[in-house]
From TrEMBL:
Protein name: Cholesterol 24-hydroxylase
GO MF: cholesterol 24-hydroxylase activity; heme binding; iron ion binding
Subcellular location, principal: other
Functional summary from the UniProt entry: P450 monooxygenase that plays a major role in cholesterol homeostasis in the brain. By promoting constant cholesterol elimination in neurons, may activate the mevalonate pathway and coordinate the synthesis of new cholesterol and nonsterol isoprenoids involved in synaptic activity and learning.
Cofactor: heme
Species this protein is from: Haplochromis burtoni (Burton's mouthbrooder)
Family annotation (Pfam families): p450
Gene3D superfamilies associated with the record: Cytochrome P450 (1.10.630.10)
Length: 466
């Protein structure tokens, strides 16, 4: 079949567009795509998206279509994105891991094995690690406050989330705020490479890009060889009868068969790389956006600080139960993902004909589903939208996706984000460095372009709270 290169430019009429927040320029090879944007009467804002397909414009505003597509296991992830992510420029990348697996049976088997590492009992036991890693960030921030230097908050929270995932998932202590490591750069390179690889079909044929493509391949290889080494160490420990944690690495090993073929080994590495990347970047970006918005809204910041003072006072160890009491902080984090869905969408292959919003769509199309809410006054950062008594926005807010392929790490991510934010609010006053941009960088995931530069001061928190 003839594959055509279409340039799809999606513009949202939202004022967000004016700050370049929801502007995507996507270059994809495809035959036929439909964009589905959730819309509900209570989300009064009408999203109008131009979908250019050789002058053909199609956009569906329909919440039921969205839920039907995402909730049903019969619509696989589409091959244009997910099959392509098997490798980057010829080097195996996410392979058939949890995010990219398209075959339902194979995916389901992996997911069931992985579930125990995300059960609420297991997560409760991780609170100590979240606290311990967040404390390292607080030590670093204390140094920054003393030195009166500027802090790049995105970089710092990235170090913490990477520290957390390597410790919690793989039992490895990187301590990135103290020691340098090749991993942050390797992840960054893989993500950038992923964007070029997915969106520009001719990228790899341009001789100018050869050096860069080699860097991307090298970065993928680094992650996979590291995985191979850490898996081999863990397997040896298991064979020796040593006590090993029931963490993600143990589950990855269990997900593969006992008699290992080369493909089984590669499959373990697929999931290793999947967790290394999926388990870190999106949470770091959410944290950085939250800090940015709190810096822009002193009233919301004060309210969040007051709640933290009331709930945790001057305690250093935040308990699992404390996290449940930080209701306003949860609202802040939810509103952050509404304005900045760090993983903005997903896509499914629909083989059969469908009627959505009264429109008949012939089978064999790809549905791009955007997972953020378009609500009234969308530019306003307003955590009260998520007040426990506020009307629930069904099917127009799902930053962790919906249905069987929804994010496995949702609770993990939100516990981690809350521990980090609560400690930050408890200990520090922060101010955004003036004249930095509030633009979003679309780097596969969404992140703040400025890095969120802040100056910090110590809070006199010891005299506040309980
Ligand atoms: C704020 C943080 C996070 C956000 C916004 C987020 C969002 C998402 C979204 C939208 C998907 C669906 C992707 C798709 O359809 O292509 C997804 C899948 C996934 N996420 Fe997350 N995620 C976050 C954090 C995490 C963390 C911390 C982990 C692991 C520790 C994780 C592990 C996964 C996995 C394994 C999948 C694939 C699930 C499956 O198909 O079975 N995520 N995430």
């Amino acid at each position: 079949s003839v594959i055509l290169l279409y340039t799809i430019i999606m513009y949202c009429s939202s004022p967000l567009h004016k700050q370049a927040a929801l502007r995507y320029e996507i270059f994809i090879c495809l035959q036929f795509q439909w964009l589905i944007v959730p819309h509900r009467p209570q989300c009064e804002f009408e999203a109008i998206i131009m979908f250019k397909l050789f002058n053909d414009k199609q956009i569906l505003n329909e919440s039921h279509g969205t839920s039907e597509i995402l909730m049903s296991p019969k619509y696989p992830k589409d091959k244009f994105v997910y099959k392509k992510l098997f490798s980057l420029f010829g080097q195996r990348f996410l392979g058939n891991g949890l995010v990219t697996a398209r075959d339902h049976e194979k995916w389901y088997k992996q997911r069931r094995i992985m579930d125990p590492a995300f059960s609420s009992t297991y997560l409760r036991g991780l609170t100590g690690t979240f606290n311990e890693r967040a404390e390292k960030l607080m030590d670093k921030l204390a140094d920054v406050a003393d030195s009166k230097k500027e802090a790049n908050m995105l970089h710092l929270v990235n170090c913490v989330t990477l520290d957390v995932i390597t410790k919690v998932a793989f039992g490895v202590d990187l301590d990135l705020l103290k020691h340098s490591s090749p991993f942050p750069k390797a992840i960054e390179t893989c993500l950038k490479g992923m964007v070029s690889y997915l969106r520009d079909r001719f990228f790899q044929f341009n001789p100018k890009n050869r050096g860069y493509i080699n860097e991307v391949r090298e970065a993928c290889r680094l992650l996979r060889t590291t995985g191979a080494q850490w898996i081999s160490e863990r397997k040896t420990a298991m064979q020796n009868g040593d006590e090993v944690p029931k963490d993600i690495l143990t589950q990855i090993i269990k997900a593969a068969k006992d008699s290992m073929t080369e493909e089984d080994e590669e499959f373990m590495l697929d999931n290793f790389v999947t967790f290394f990347i999926a388990g870190q970047e999106t949470t770091a970006n959410q944290l950085a956006f939250a800090i940015m918005e709190l810096g822009r809204h002193p009233d919301i910041l004060e309210k969040a600080k007051k709640e933290v003072d009331d709930v945790i006072g001057m305690k250093h160890e935040i308990s699992y139960d404390d996290l449940g009491k930080l209701v306003y902080l949860s609202q802040v984090l939810k509103e952050t993902l509404r304005m900045y869905p760090t993983a903005p969408g997903t896509s499914r292959h629909i083989a059969e004909d469908m009627v959505i919003d009264g429109i008949h769509i012939p089978g064999g199309f790809v549905a791009l589903v955007i997972n953020t809410i378009f609500s009234n006054d969308p530019l306003k950062f307003d955590p009260d939208r998520f007040h426990p008594d506020a009307p629930k926005p069904y099917y127009c807010y799902y930053p962790f996706s919906l249905g069987p392929r929804a994010c496995l790490g949702k609770n993990f991510a939100q516990m981690e984000a809350k521990v980090v934010m609560a400690k930050l609010l408890q200990r520090f006053d922060f101010t955004l460095v003036p004249e930095q941009t509030f633009d979003i960088l679309d780097a596969g995931t969404l992140r703040p372009k400025s890095g969120v530069l802040c100056t910090l001061g110590h809070r006199d928190y010891k005299n506040k709270g309980s």
